[in-house]
Write a structure and sequence with these properties.
The structure holds 2 protein chains of 2 kinds. Helices cover about 80% and strands about 0% of the residues of chain A. Chain A is mainly α. Chain A has helices spanning about 10-40, 45, 55-70, 70-100, 105-129; one strand at about 40. Chain B is mainly alpha-helical. Chain B has helices at about 15-20, 25-50, 50-55, 65-80, 85-120, 125-150; one strand spanning about 15. The radius of gyration of chain B is 18 Å and the shape is globular. Chain B starts with 12 loop residues before the first strand and ends with a helix. The chains are: A mainly alpha, B mainly alpha. β1 (about 40) of chain A pairs antiparallel with β1 of chain B, so a sheet runs across the interface.
């Protein structure tokens, strides 16, 4: 599944480090592009769509296809279904805390992570494990 | 979801001044967070495999930063217009809440994006799979957003 040879440990470590750095740079760039677009769009409910943009997915899958192949990417895509359901719950929970409970954004968005983890790993345990 | 956000306008527009409102360090924060989550996703997949790693492709990595920015900018805008603190805060949180509701709609498109990746990987060239998935993400989201507003208005 992993095409990188581990025969030479030092070489392997260098490749792994390069891959992490590449993921960081590409991820940062893709996220920034979508963030700029989102900031400029109105109304806010439309710009909010870009809060659920597949930024991490685009950056990650591009590298995954190149380094690990289509089968690996397809498996990640299937798990992403559960992550997307969890993201919906996360967003609704954040929205509820802001609109109905008048919470401030940062505490609301941080607390809602509990919902994301619960739903995504719950679905993983039931359907994907 | 209808009670969670006002219907408002249907016309989508670009507000270029919003780009100037955002400070350079606010973009840097999102760049760093986005980069860190992407790198972490790769590490998680390496350690635990693609089934677990794939969950994090839909992780709300920059959502806290983005929604905080919406609130902050809205509060500043309302302060300039001379509104009192409580009203400013309320309006700013409403704006952030509406943005969050928009992201909930956006996750429908993200689900469709994932379906394309899962089903079409290996059948089409990778660049075409990603392009198709992105096009479907955008198309589904725009349609769902538009349909919801039409129904509620």
């Amino acid at each position: 599944m992993n095409r990188i040879s581990i025969a030479d440990p030092i070489h392997f470590q260098n490749i792994v480090t390069m891959e992490i750095l590449l993921r960081f740079l590409i991820g940062g760039i893709v996220v920034s592009i979508f963030a700029v677009i989102s900031d400029m769009l109105r109304p806010r409910s439309f710009s909010g769509l870009f809060g659920a943009a597949p930024t991490v997915a685009l950056a990650t899958l591009g590298i995954t296809y190149a380094l690990k192949g289509s089968s690996y990417a397809a498996t990640e895509g299937r798990s992403m279904l559960a992550g997307a359901v969890a993201l919906c719950v996360y967003s609704l929970l954040t929205s509820y805390l802001l609109l109905k409970r008048n919470w401030s954004s940062l505490p609301a968005a941080l607390l809602a992570f509990v919902g994301w983890f619960a739903v995504s790993f719950g679905l993983w345990a039931i359907f994907l494990r | 979801m209808g009670h969670l956000s006002p219907v408002g306008e249907l016309k989508v527009r670009l507000k270029l001044s919003a780009f100037k409102q955002t400070r350079w360090y606010e973009y840097l924060i999102r760049f760093v967070f986005g980069g860190l989550v992407t790198a972490a996703t790769g590490l998680i997949a390496q350690k635990y495999g693609p089934v677990v790693g794939g969950l994090f492709l839909a992780f709300p990595s920059i959502f806290p930063a983005s929604v905080t920015l919406v609130q902050t900018h809205k509060e500043k805008q309302e302060k300039k217009e001379g509104k009192g603190k409580q009203l400013r805060q309320r309006m700013a949180r409403q704006a952030a809440g509406v943005t969050s509701a928009g992201a909930a709609i956006g996750s429908v498109g993200l689900f469709c994006f994932a379906v394309v990746i899962w089903q079409m990987s290996g059948r089409l060239p990778p660049w075409l799979v990603l392009a198709l998935a992105l096009a479907i993400w955008l198309g589904v989201n725009v349609f769902v957003w538009w349909a919801r507003r039409k129904i509620l208005s």
